[in-house]
Amino acid sequence: LDKSRTLILDLMRDQSENWNQRNGYDQFPWVWCTITNFGGKPGLEGKLMRVLTEPKRAVQQQTGKTMKGVGVIPEGIENNAIV
Prior knowledge:
Elements: E1 8-10, H1 18-21, E2 30-35, H2 48-60, E3 67-73
Parallel strand pairs: 1-2, 2-3
């Protein structure tokens, strides 16, 4: 793949450290994302501390140097108001 034309959306990072386990996606640009609901099934829950701290921790690691931003991936119209 051409790194200048590829952007990886790293989904569900509030659940694990895939970016670190995959060696920063071999220097491809990527976005740290969280999914706020699954198929329009919102809940009043979430790993708030991970959402707040993990993106910052990621960019401070060598494997996170190519992180380009933070994304929220809603799968329905209703969203998780807490997150």
